[in-house]
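Project standup — Tuesday

K.O.: blocked on the structure for the chain from last sprint. Re-posting the sequence here as requested.
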Amino acid sequence: MRIAAVQMDVTLADIAGNLSRMITKTRETRAAGAELTIFPECALTGYCFDSIDEARPYAESIPGPSVDKMAALCAELGGFVVFGLLEKEGARVFNALALVGPQGLIGSYRKIHLPRLGVDMYTDFGDRPFAVHEINGLRIGMNICYDGGFPESGRCLALLGADLIVLPTNWPPGAEAAADYAINTRAMENTVYYAAADRVGVERGVPFIGKSKICDPLGKTLGYADHTHEEILYADVDVSRSRNKHLIRKAGVNEVNRIADRHPEMYSKLVEPHSLQRPGR
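H.V.: unblocked you, prediction finished:
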């Protein structure tokens, strides 16, 4: 399957304009043969809201009006789309992703790890387990931005059978190491494809660094937008590579399997409750 990661600018609080640009970009990626198009975190809404009261009017249900419009586009063109938005459920608001195809909503994700930045200072923590969704034989796991800095997130998705982990993101200055090194590492340590779609531009004084990237299951870079202007990255995903966890470099001499060679009985410290309290939460 050919995939596309769209690095684009976003306008705060302009759902109609942002959706229109995503539709235009999806037409471009489909014309280039991409079956899956990945947009940045909060691509529908923008990110730098100053309060939950300011952000709430721009949050939508999933499914909802924008998911329905993107599903109609997928029905017209074929293919699938992942895009970031703010999700409302009752009084709660989540930083979320929607995976949409010709038949409508396939799956969604709520960001679990929230930094003290932008709208994440006010949204609710994701409350659903990690999950993998299948499209045309490709198994997709979803994370958002800061989630990628926690190796447990990628490992859970790999153990659930993901071939590809998508990471829509809004990386600010200071996140360069995540772009330069962590994406390759998450791919390599889980033997999966990994695609980070970042935004660019400046929003309320916060610049975004771009540096979108797609890596293969060995951690090799397949595409990298090492700059801060708009670009679309393309790569071809071969599920036989992501599902072959037993890597034989020289039979009987140099073989690794980063799933089978784990020792979970030694990792209990990872799941112990911690006592750290983040200010404001």
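K.O.: great, moving the ticket to review. Residues 2-246 form a domain with the Nitrilase/N-carbamoyl-D-aminoacid amidohydrolase fold (CATH 3.60.110.10). The mean pLDDT is 97.
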